Amino acid sequence: MQPLHTENRFILNRDGTCFFYLADTAWELVHKLTREEIDLYCSERQGQGFTAFQTVALAELDGLYTPNAYGRLPLKMTDSVPDPTRPDTDGEYSYWDHLDYTVRTAMAHELYVVLLPTWGDKFNLKWGKGPEIFTPQNARIYGRFMGSRYGGYTNIIWMLGGDRILEDDDRAIIDAMAEGIREADKEHLITFHPAGSSESVMWVNDADYIDFHTSQTGHATDKPYISYRVIEKMRAATDKPVLDSESRYEDHPACFSTASGYYWNADDVRQNIYWNLFSGACGFTYGNHAVWSMNTAVTDYTPLTWRDAIHRPGAQQVRYAKELFLSKKPLSIHPCQKLLTENLSGMGYMSAALGDGFAYIYSPLGIPFSINAAPIGAAKGVRASWFDPRTGKREVFAVLPTNHDTAVAPPTQGKGCDWVLVLEDIG
User: Fold this and answer.
1) Cβ-count burial 223-262 (b if 16+ within 10 Å, e if not)
2) Contact 143/179 with Cβ under 8 angstroms?
3) N or C, where is the chain less crowded by C-beta within 10 Å?
């Protein structure tokens, strides 16, 4: 594994090939899991085709005062307050020794660690446990510590922010933390994780340290249903790669309410990943409500343990989107709604992308639609296949003309009956 870089709209491997960012949200992993459990987690996610996971050093769930699995805290105290300039690195099994182990284990499983130096409540206590401990001065020192300790690992991506908008002095803190990281680590990519229903281009679009932008379309009912519009908005605001770093978590109560009687499921996850990819995203972040928190107690609000949740259908199925995206010339793929003669709205919205001699059209509800294959530029027609996002299987069903509109009907219709139409130049 080597440090990644960006070019145009894509994240690239060192050899110039496309890196597909398929991450899991494992925010509490370092804070809660033992080393044996981290081994299990990494092994499972590697087997499911993930390429990264997002986790936090100073964690959300009382990460400054609740010890990790080995009884260790991340920071020493100054005047009874956790001090980010004094990380507790003393001895084997220190908090930071445990994070070292996590990064090494991820590398052994060919996973990048998308590492948040801190969750947002440590500099902006809009909600959460806090306390606020960061200033621009100590943020730079802490960033330098993080960059020095982890900049030597090749499987690191930095993610600043931590579920926050930037208010008052927050931007100065984030800038200083980035400067500290860059003083020690000039090689690894840096991005920003914003608050729900917002995008990093709203807060750090002018920051020269940002290599790619992310959104958090979240778990309510507004942005998740138009995640394709969010990707379009970010693409219009920046020439850098963009993706959604937190969309609907599988098994999360819709709108944060068990009273709705509905939990986001694999169907909803698939909608977001295909909508986003064909609207110009360079990857996707999956999440499960029990896994991000490394939950061990079943409740109505969190109905699974993390050990059970890592095997959920959505986690098995997102790999098929990655495999489809990489199966042809991924660096040629770009949004192309001209492939559709008409479209639907809301849950039925269809996203389309064009590549060098091929095209993809995603139908989230399997409703029949009409296409215009002319943008592919095929002189002799196109081979048409239905790709099943639930299984990753593809079946050719026709050869279609490119000189006039053609109606097609996916094999099944309804919620959860999503399909991808794959068109390929037969010449």
Assistant:
1) bbbbbbebbbbbbeebebbbbbbbbbbbbbbbeeeeeeee
2) yes
3) C
Give the model confidence (pLDDT) of 69-87 as tens digits: 999 999 999 999 999 999 9
pLDDT band at 222; cut points 50, 70, 90: confident
Mean pLDDT for the stretch of residues 360-377:
97
CA-closest candidate to residue 356, choices 371, 341, 375: 375
Residues with Cβ within 8 Å of 92's Cβ and at least 6 positions away in sequence, in order, are none
**CA nearest to 291, candidates 24, 85, 100, 104:** 24
Q: Which two tokens stand for residue 67?
A: 């010890």
Assessment of whether the complete model's pTM goes beyond 0.70: yes
Supply the CATH classification number for the domain 5-330: 3.20.20.80
Domain segments of the chain: what residues? 5-330, 336-425
